[in-house]
From TrEMBL:
Record keyword Repeat present: yes
Designated name of the protein: Ankyrin repeat-containing domain protein
ANK repeats: 125-149, 232-264
PANTHER family documented for this protein: PROTEIN VAPYRIN, ROLLING PEBBLES, ISOFORM B
Length: 328
């Protein structure tokens, strides 16, 4: 905004605080202490002097706080707003949060070094761009980042050694999990600092569909994947039982999870049941699984016995034929 723009008229002064993004109009008023906030928008120019609209480059927003006046007159600010520059690293994170893949592409084209862009804030754990997109469930952003080589040759890890797939599985974002499993299936069994993988995170969150996708794409097979344990000896079945996720319990047992597996404190998954209903349900599932296992073993034994009898019978017939040939 250039000189001559009208705002509430008041004998006031422009005071700049340490933060370059805020400017306040301050003045003491004797009769009325209430204030109003006025938001003003302007354009950044190439120089300090005001220029016409052809020289305007960037939209600038300034927030001004001025005391209310009885007359309702508007003061005049005789100086342009200062330009507010936003770091590209912050702009790309804002674009990811807004789920704007086109803007992310433009920023990465101008700043290719920001492909990973770890977040330096204390609560962000150095999450990369893909971590942020996966945790929010923004599939278009995830596709853009993976296509640009975000996970090549190795997946990006935060301070807890978590992958983007772990965050997506923990949040239950089915589309993002499916996409990452298709593009990077080797990341499914990656462990964090607590030795937990994406399957454990999905079981812990109670996301049955996500769990089924992970078990479908896991390289070593579902049976081996559900047997893995973290540093405390807890398996995916322990996490599912502690949260009372009934559908997840059925999926894990169908995949071959061991209900009698104990952690370092000698507790089974059934001991961690969140509710009585979950405990009864888990006991019923375990009984059903054991019954099916016994039936399967009986069928296998019957097949083996039939094959053995057939082989013995065939061998006896061959012996008789050989005797006949000797008599001739």
């Amino acid at each position: 905004m250039h000189a001559g723009v009208h705002v509430p008229k008041l004998n006031c002064r422009l005071q700049a605080f340490p933060s370059p993004q805020r400017f306040f109009i301050t003045k003491k008023h004797k009769q009325q202490k209430s204030t109003e906030v006025v938001t003003m928008m302007g354009k950044r120019t190439d120089g300090n002097k005001p220029k016409d609209r052809r020289g305007h480059q960037e939209l600038v927003t300034g927030t001004f706080q001025a005391p209310c006046t009885k007359s309702g007159q508007w003061p005049v600010i005789s100086r342009p707003l200062l330009a507010i520059s936003i770091e590209p690293s912050l702009r790309v994170r804002r674009a990811i949060t807004a789920n704007d893949p086109l803007l992310v592409k433009r920023i990465l084209k101008s700043h290719p070094r920001l492909l990973h862009n770890p977040d330096p804030s204390p609560e962000a754990l150095s999450n990369s761009n893909l971590h942020l997109a996966a945790s929010l469930g923004h599939l278009p952003i995830a596709k853009v980042l993976v296509d640009h080589g975000h996970e090549h040759p190795d997946p990006a890890l935060n301070e807890h050694h978590q992958t983007a797939l772990m965050l997506a599985a923990a949040a239950g974002h089915t589309d993002v999990v499916h996409f990452l499993c298709e593009r990077t299936p080797h990341v499914i069994l990656r462990r964090d600092i607590r030795w937990r993988d994406a399957i454990m995170e999905a079981s812990r969150g109670g996301h049955d569909t996500v769990l089924q996708i992970l078990l479908t794409y896991v390289p070593e097979g579902a049976r081996a994947a559900v047997q893995r344990a973290d540093l405390d000896g807890n398996t995916a079945l322990h996490f599912a039982s502690s949260n009372g996720n009934l559908l997840v319990l059925r999926t894990l047992l169908a995949a071959g999870a061991d209900a009698e597996r104990r952690n370092v404190w000698s507790w089974t998954a059934m001991s961690y049941s969140a509710t009585v209903q979950a405990e009864v349900y888990l006991k019923g599932l375990v009984t059903e699984v054991e019954r099916r296992k016994m039936v399967r073993q009986e069928v296998e034994q019957l097949k083996n016995s039939v094959k053995g009898a057939a082989s013995i019978k065939g061998g006896a017939v061959r012996v008789v034929e050989e005797d006949v040939e000797v008599e001739d």
